[in-house]
Amino acid sequence: MIQKKIEGLIEEVKSFIPENSEELEHFRIKFLGRKGILQDYFLQFKEFDSHLKKETGKSLNELKNLVTEKVLDFQKKFTEQSATGLYDHIDLTLEPAPFKKASRHPVSIVKKQIIDIFTRIGFTISEGPEIVDDWHNFTALNFPQDHPARDMQDTFFVQRNPDYLLRTHTSSVQVQEMQSNKPPIRTISVGRVYRNETITYKSHVQFHQIEGLYIDKNVSFSDMKQVLYYFTGEFFGPDYKVRFRPSFFPFTEPSAEMDIQVPNGEGKWMEILGCGMVDPNVLENCGIDSSVYTGYAFGIGIERLSLLKFGIKDIRILFENDVRFLEQFISE
Fold first, then answer.
1. CA–CA separation, 207 and 315 (whole Å)
2. Which of 154, 195, 207, 210 has its Cβ near the most Cβ atoms within 10 Å?
3. Which residues sit opposite 270 in a β-bridge?
4. 164-213 pLDDT tens trace
């Protein structure tokens, strides 16, 4: 009796042809669902007489395989049918929509150019945190306790712990490099720095720096000048004249500022970087024997070089996110 019912169901499955996916789903649930025909028969199977189990089990497996194959075949068929004609409304002979090229910010362009120049002559790239403690930002670099840069009006200290602040220069990275590495050290420190400088109607707090550091035996001021002459020649070209002027920084001695004379600028000079020999106190603070090693350091403001490189008249435009301005720097 059971065997004949199963054989009848096998014939039913063989002749079944669904009209659509909804009808196929009803068929699937009828046979393969948790309360379906096959589930019911398999539950009854353990109660069958032993002489019926072999033949009945074979028929049940045949029925299950037929149902599963039928469902999979028609699922594939209906999927293909639904995809047919999906894109018929698109004219593939039309020209594609114009693709608008992206642009890079002039600060990003200049930063990459500077990094490329210094890495060609052996400088590595070092990075560090933008929130640092007072020792890394000021004390290790020979800043006296009464230096104006330590005032709240010039520097952004963390309110919950005034010993921490947004770094005012990437020199804090150089301190970390000197603490964690033995000379020779030849590195450039790249990143954002923060100071309270009002160049817009709001207080401007962020700009970008690249600072260089070289420490080894017998490093001289002349070595530094030659490296910076090479840099300006590679970055600006031969039409720019440069000069060094004496200056003062707490962390270098002697110190200088490097100026550049802009072509067609009526002989005007503009400062582009500060530099000097690393003060012996800084070397000692970082665990380097100043009687054995000397070194030089320099700091470059990327925004200022961006103005010179591209002839930008107003530094504020670098921070206004004007797409019309940025479109001028689209690469070919």
1. 11
2. 210
3. 260
4. 999 989 999 999 999 999 999 999 999 999 887 655 444 457 889 999 99
What span, in angstroms and rounded, lies between the C-alpha atoms of 172 and 204? 21
Contact 228, 117 (CB under 8 A): no
| Domains assigned to the chain | 2-83 (no CATH), 106-329 (3.30.930.10)
CA atoms of 39 and 27, how far apart (whole Å): 14
288-316 b/e with 16+ CB inside 10 Å = b?
Answer: beeeebbbbbbbbbbbbbbbbeeebeebe
CA nearest neighbour of 212 among 114, 293, 297, 282 = 297
CA distances in angstroms from 296 to 1, 22, 127, 252, listed in the order given: 100, 79, 19, 8
Q: How many angstroms separate the CA atoms of 250 and 242, rounded?
A: 24
d(CA 243, CA 178): 29
Question: What's the distance, CA 122 to chain centroid?
Answer: 24
Per-residue model confidence as pLDDT tens digits over 61-75:
888 888 898 888 888
Please, where are the H alpha helices in 84-150? 106-120, 134-137
Query: What stretches of the chain show up as alpha helix (H) in DSSP?
Result: 2-15, 21-32, 37-45, 50-83, 106-120, 134-137, 171-180, 221-236, 280-285, 302-310, 323-326
Q: 231: Cβ–Cβ under 8 A, 6 or more apart, which residues?
A: 114, 117, 118
Report the DSSP pairing between strands 131-133 and 204-216: unpaired
